[in-house]
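Subgroup meeting minutes
Present: P.N., E.W., G.H.
Scribe: E.W.

1. P.N. recapped why we're keeping a running log of single-chain structure predictions: easier to compare across weeks, and new members can see raw inputs and outputs side by side.
2. G.H. added today's entry (480 aa).
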Amino acid sequence: MRALLQKRRLQLQLLSAFLAVACVAASSVLVISDAIRHAQGFVLADANRALQSAIADLKEQYQERSSQDSSWSSLPLGARDLSLRAISQAVLSSYPGVEGGYWSASTFLGYSFPTHDEAAHKTDVPAAERGAIESVIKQALARGTGQQVLRGKTDLVVIRAARQGGIAVWAMKRLPGQAEPGAWRRSVLLAVLITAALIGAAGVLGTSMQLHRGIAEITQGLSALKADFGHGLSERKDELGEISRAINEMAAVRRKLEAELRREDRLRTTGRLVASIAHEIRNPLNSIRLCMQLLEQRLEKNTLRREDFRLVRDEVDRMNQLLADLLAFQQGRPPQMRPQRIYPLLERCVQLTQHQAERRGVQLLLEANQSEVQASVDDRQFMQVVMNLVLNAIEATEGRGKVVIRMRPDSDSVAVEVSDEGPGLTAEQQEHLFEPFYTTKANGVGLGLAVSRELMQSMGGQLSYRPGEGGATFVVELPT
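Output recorded in log:
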């Protein structure tokens, strides 16, 4: 039922649009018709001038002929008809499309149509217009002149007559293709077109407003879907309802796919985590087992020394550090935030890592423009992040140059940069830099940068990598 109503509504809207277009076209026809009507005025004026001139020439020739022949008035009608026909034939030859003659004693005399298409010139007064010609002649005999315009289905006919003594001189010209509908018909047609145009315009306006509202709602819903695919579009009951339902179906499919992808990603991450932990624990266990075999042999030979236990302790410490990193990454201790100066924390990090730098032949520098800058941080976690970055930089720069720690305060934040002069990182390494268990070190676990980023985010800050022409730069940002 709803689909049928939507179909009917769409048909009405299309009909309204069609009416609007049809009215525009018909209005154009009316405008053209009015232009033709105005043009007819010029054509009629030109025809009247030609008829007036022809009648004047016919009158002049009649007066000259009658004055030269003293017996003119006593001539029989047939003789006068032949004589006047020669005059009208000669005169009207100069006026294309004009026919005419004389009227005397209720009789047509001297009729001629020299430009008629027939081989022999037409000699009889046209029967269709005979009554109108006689009416115009009677007007001329009574008032001096007479005129009438006949409007046929396709032609206009202009008739004029003038009195000359006791006779009348008349002329007629036919204007093909100049007919037009009556004024009342044009008025009725124009009123119908205006009404239909208003109905069509209202239909088009209603359709456009409905489409505009529907598109605006769909656009707003799509914007919400970009932020959260759990959001759904309200299903409309008009033609756009199919679009909103299709979008909701696509959103549901995407939510399902994203849930499956998250599940697969968790499985992959769990697999990588298990494999990495197993690998990292197996290495120190193997070392401990070899050390225990060595200790057993030396115990039998009574050559056991204190230094022989150091390797076992180092491997145990390594396993303990691995478990500590895993716990820090998995659970995370809530930061103990308090406002404090950043520069003394950086100085402490330099003091703790200075020995490592000297042992690897690296110069460690601290640069700060404003040593009084404060920020709200957890000092232990902040120092853990900075020391991790400094130790990584020292290891990457071993024997190559220097590591520089710079503090750059801003209006609403403070940035700490740790730059080294090592080989830098490739594009592939930068892509996976902060992923857990990804490392470029032979003996690395791959949790240091991942844990550092988690710690900075828990303090409301950021940890990012900035590539340079040489070496690498890590940036720690904190709000002041």
